[in-house]
Amino acid sequence: MEIQLWRELLDPYQLAVDELLIKFNHMISEHRNMGLYSPIESVIGRVKTIVSILDKMQRKDVSMNELEEKIEDIAGLRITCQFVEDIDRVVALIKNRSDMEVKYEKDYVKNMKDSGYRSYHMIIYYTVNTIKGPKKLNAEIQIRTMAMDFWATIEHSLQYKYKEKIPAHVQQNLLDASSAIIDLDKAMSEVRDEIMDAQNSFKKKENIVKDILNNIQNLYRVANEREVVKIQDEFYKVYMLDDLVQLQHFSKQLDIISEGYRAQSIS
Ligand code: 0O2
Fold this sequence. Notes:
The chain is α+β, with helices and mostly antiparallel strands and 267 residues long. 63% of the residues lie in helices and 16% in strands. The protein contains nine helices and five strands; from the N terminus they run αβααβαβββααααα. It has a five-stranded mixed beta sheet. Strand 4 and strand 5 (133-145) form a beta hairpin. Helix 7 packs parallel to helix 9 and helix 8 (225-240) runs antiparallel to helix 9. 18% of the residues are buried. Ligand 0O2 binds next to helix 2 and helix 5. Ligand 0O2 is lined by residues 48, 52, 56, 73, 106, 113, 115, 117, 121, 152, 155-156.
């Protein structure tokens, strides 16, 4: 196939990856802006390279006509989570969407591959709108913990080095590492509540401080400078107390003061 035709074929997949990245990143910020824990820690995406598509077609005996139907990961997204429990929550979020239709799923978390690979795969149908009209295509979403991702990334690079003939002793080391990853994920799950509490209160504090600083900055425009400096000094004092309740109280008081100035400036 000519290079130009490959470009035309792959272009909608690039659009799908770009759109899906925006949507998943937005899910992260939606959670965080609402002060909620996000089961998605991060997301990356890529369009499969032509070489990698050709290799897979050869491996799976796929003809050019069947390419888009049978190579289902031309558009690929990888979602990483902090904890194993988050994987199911991400799966539920995806199933709940009206713009992503699940074609099928493969649970390599419960059913680990012989290689030691663990990850949850979803093949979805996703529709993009191009200048030629709407196009429904396949996309693969891999969902895994950060620990699983670490293992898969290392193992994947070894596959390139050894061209799928990984020596037995290296394979054994990888299997040992994979079971260490299972133990690590279990240990992290056991302290999940504590970790989530710590992260949530840090995020809450960050959001409150952001509001306070915004308010102070706006006050400089409408209030007497000496008064704003006094408020600022008060903020530093409250901040140093390291007490979320006091910080919240200060923020509310500041909201009332700012509202007063806003009302004055309108009248
Ligand atoms: P790349 O370079 O990541 O794109 P199947 O016929 O079902 O066995 P298929 O269709 O490839 O094979 O599906 P599968 O097994 O679900 O694998 C899809 C993708 O999952 C792979 O894409 C890898 O990204 C990842 N994967 C699957 N097995 C392993 C594994 O043992 N180790 C690692 N590191 N990744 C794995 P590609 O196209 O193979 O590779």
